[in-house]
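Researcher: Let's try something more involved. This one mixes different molecule types, so please make sure each is placed in the same coordinate frame as the others.
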Amino acid sequence: ETGVTQTPRHLVMGMTNKKSLKCEQHLGHNAMYWYKQSAKKPLELMFVYNFKEQTENNSVPSRFSPECPNSSHLFLHLHTLQPEDSALYLCASSQGTANTGELFFGEGSRLTVL
Amino acid sequence: GQNIDQPTEMTATEGAIVQINCTYQTSGFNGLFWYQQHAGEAPTFLSYNVLDGLEEKGRFSSFLSRSKGYSYLLLKELQMKDSASYLCAVRDTGNYQLIWGAGTKLIIKP
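Model: All components are placed in one shared frame. Result:
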């Protein structure tokens, strides 16, 4: 496989459930990102990891918990979410974080919280 | 504050030319990006401008004026497959992260 792969593509969960989103990149990049995309709103940066270390946490509620076991894999653990958390969650990677070039995005995980 | 403005939606005709504008007000500037996102798909990189002027890449061109806080994406010889959202983003100098506009949905009609 090439590029950035996200699973699952669609997820429906209740407010008391615990689920995880997975992202894998096959580009040899060392930086990975989680973004939230809501309709008609700008992309919201959630977390940044560089060489497995978290370098940005954009005031994200603790019900979202990221995990980066290595430079190729990124998870977003979800628990006790709210309906307003329903959105498209995009993973991206890049070669480094400072003064970087383009971001490479996965196709996203569409999350619906009931 | 940080602000990126672009039109919400535009409509154009197949074969024509369309210009999508983006204005920005940011505390720092380290380059401006344009991305294309088809419905249900990943955003993909289109262009990058860090100096004033026009960058041409096939049917697509991107222009930047740093003094005016302004950029545009010019699409020529429009094709139906150009129907997509176009996202403008500015890289900040503080943490080098991208500040995004809400995107412009471009609808191409035959």
